[in-house]
Design brief:
Required for the transposition of the insertion element. This protein has helices spanning 6-16, 21-48, 106-115, 120-131, 137-145, 148-155, 211-223, 240-247, 257-265, 270-284, 289-303, 308-316, 318-321, 329-335, 339-352, 361-376, 386-396; strands spanning 64-74, 77-86, 162-177, 180-192, 198-206, 228-234, 252-255. The protein is of the alpha/beta class. The strands form two sheets. It has a five-stranded mixed β-sheet, with helices on both faces. Strands 1-2 form a two-stranded antiparallel sheet. α3 crosses α16 and α7 runs parallel beside α8.
Length: 405
Amino acid sequence: MSTLSKEHIKQLVRENNFQSVSDVNAYLKDIFKDIIQELLEAELEAELGYAKDDVANKNTDNSRNGYTPKKIKSEFGEIDIQVPRDRKGEFQPKIIPKYQRNVSGIEEKVIALYARGMSTRDISQQIEELYGFSLSPEMVSKITDRIAPEIKEWQQRPLEPIYSFIFMDAIHYKVKDEGRITNRAAYIVLGVTIDGYKDILGIWIGDNESSKFWLGVLNDLKNRGVEDVLIFCVDGLTGLKEAINAAYPKSEVQRCIIHQLRNSFKYVSYKDLKAFSNDFKEVYHAINEEVALEKLYELKEKWGKEYPYAIRSWENNWEVISPFFKFPEEIRKIIYTANIIEGLHRQFCKVTKTKTIFPTDSSLEKMLYLASMNVVKKWTQRYKNWDRVLSQLMIQYPGRLEEYI
């Protein structure tokens, strides 16, 4: 399609005496209407085989039969068009199919706005301001409901047979349930493939976080084809390690060091927090587990009497903290913190910050799914120095990766 020359555009401006952007929009709306009308006429002419004013060349027993008025929604607002009819009722327009009344791509725009965290009411108002026609909050909700099959397909899609790392965490929301406000947990599972790429494996909406629900999630992963996971990175939820061991007995469970530190620091007075945290660096920066234990005992000598619970937390959880120390820097950076999943949570918070309460579980699921799709689009790079990471994993877990590489 050729574009208008500058001279042609100048001529249009002179002839139409545009005074504002609204004038330009009104002109484009009229042009758009005329183009749609001409395309419909051309379609019927092709169908019948003769022009409207060329009956002499008519070679069909079908003919034109007036018009049907139709109101369509476009990017220029609502437009009234006249859809030509044929006498036999065989004409099926392609430019605007029989039952289509929206030619603006409005559904995609609604879903994009919903994915950014706008409420159905806000979207309704914005559509009216932008396009000049009304779209009720209920209609907005119905439009976003059309992605439900897409979510179901995504949630049930087959997964990789093995993942090098899987991060598990939950984020909490309030949802209406039969008139009551209840606390709901969105269970998030994020995997790292053996090629070093991140992916969100699923989002499950359930009751407040529990190891029993997590076991159901893990079994779901198994049913979707996940045969093995080298390392699970998790927080300190009671019973979570046992749930992982039940589903994936060969997997290593690594407590997120950052979660562990936060759990310790909540017992420490603010005046001592800086000194205490600096001393703790000696523990989690240790070159191996033996040195880490020595530094922990030194820390206990110094701070144990004043803050016994802070130290005891590390001693009680050492089994799920200690795997960290057998790995080199490249792997430690990956499992040191659940930053990867906390970064995802931050994206969720951006789109849900205006929603203090969700009307249903499905509305929460829709918003988190759309936000997830926006995040995953940006995950195009694999982890830095992945070749070295993979080499270390093959040494640490012999015989478990070779058949998948």
